[in-house]
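Structure tokens
________________
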Amino acid sequence: MAEAERIIGTPDIPDAARAGREQPGRSAAPGEPAGTELSGGEPAAAPSGGSGTGGAATAEEPAKTGAGEARDAAERPRGRRRIAVLFVVAVLAYALDLVSKMIVVAKLEHHAPIEIAGDWLKLEAIRNAGAAFGFGEAFTVIFTVIAAAVIVVIARLARKLYSLPWAIALGLLLGGALGNLTDRIFRSPGVFEGAVVDFISPKHFAVFNLADSAIVCGGILIVLLSFRGLDPDGTVHKD
């Protein structure tokens, strides 16, 4: 009876398949769909998408991207720091010039010159309507416009200023131009025609002030940087 029930009610199952069902965790046999549930109740794992090298490439892409961004960040110029240097140097040059002129007007003007090194160097208050070192007194308004134009140009260059030496040079120019422009606007005889206060008087040389010194030093530094091929953006070019 048992033999008849086995033959009639039980489908024929190959021995290999029966043995496979009795082995939990077995991988799907050839021809079976991926994800076939095994006897242990766990579906067979589906093959991962992509080729064998696709997974490795996917893992390497973020690493390469991160490394590239880190390298770009390291090579990128630090514009904010250079702009800060420009304005710090300009403020210092302007403040020194302004304070020195206030002291000269209050203590030295209409008084005898003060000898620092005999006749070789004296402090003498002089009103100068011309450019630096007393040149061009008939063109006060023109020099005022030039000073204002220099300030505008420096402000525009500051947006792409990544070189520290250029920041110092332009800061000296900016501070000196602002110092003399302040005199031309606020001192007598009138707006844009005011006379600049000069007080440093070397022997056999024109009388000048700290703003003139800052402008000359900044100009010399710019010439040296140009000869070396260093641009304001920090790049170096060779002719």
Remarks:
- Residues 87 and 177 are 13 Å apart (CA to CA).
